[in-house]
Amino acid sequence: MKCQTVLAGTECTFWGKQGCVFPEGSCQTIAENCEGCDRIVTGTIGQICSAYPAPAKKWIGGICNFASHVKVDLSIAELKINPLKASKKASGAKKKK
Ligand code: SF4
User: Fold this and answer.
1) Which residue's CA lies nearest to atom 8 of ligand 1?
2) Confidence band for 3, pLDDT divided at 50, 70 and 90
3) Distance CA 47, CA 53 (A)
4) Interstrand relation of 19-20 and 40-43 (parallel, antiparallel or unpaired)
5) Which pTM was predicted?
6) Contact 8/48 with Cβ under 8 angstroms?
7) CA–CA distance, 3 with 26 (Å, rounded to integer)
8) Which H or E run contains 53?
9) 40, 45, 51, 52 alpha-carbon torsion, rounded to 10°
10) pLDDT tens readout for residues 17-38
11) Which is nearest to 54 in space by CA: 27, 36, 79?
12) Which residues line ligand 1 (CB under 6 A)?
């Protein structure tokens, strides 16, 4: 159903017949880490996230997985992959007879 408060007219999965069913009854404003993200929109309570109603929670365990402004740079060395195991896995090992 469509939101009738923070982003009136926007389709939202949290809006039901009894209003917003998200905890605290509303979206929450963006977190400091969100600054620069393309998903920020302006609602009646200020800047909010168009992808998730509680932006601060998206940063609790690390980088927000919806963030458009943060890129994760992973090199092979950082992944700590055992080259021998990776080779076996790629070749479809575990051929038992
Ligand atoms: S997608 Fe993540 S980083 Fe971007 S505004 Fe939403 S919560 Fe913040």
Assistant:
1) 34
2) very high
3) 11
4) unpaired
5) 0.73
6) no
7) 10
8) none
9) 130
10) 999 999 989 999 999 999 999 9
11) 27
12) 30, 34, 37, 39-40, 49, 51-52, 55, 58, 64, 66-67
